[in-house]
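Q: Here's a chain of 102 amino acids. Please give me its 3D structure as tokens.
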Amino acid sequence: MLTSVDTDLIRVLADPLRLRIVTLLARETLCTTHLVAETGARQTNLSNHLKVLREAGVVETEPCGRFTYYKLRPDVIASLAGQFADLAESARAAAENKRACP
């Protein structure tokens, strides 16, 4: 039973703008222009966040003419969700475990 989570991925998703991007990409594949319009972020800031998400394996790119589309990798999110589910199950199983104080 797993009792820890991917902390690097948690750090990546902890940023509010990156979490907003992931939420938007969970609904549809979008290009940078769409993401700028949806988030109100500056293009350069958004591109930096997309780079972090790409490097973490959370999103993948799809070139389309002069645009680059981004789509969420659901397997990565599902894996993280599974890690949290395992952590919750460990907590349930250990609910009565209490270490004695010295």
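Q: Can you summarize the key feature?
A: The longest strand covers residues 59-64.
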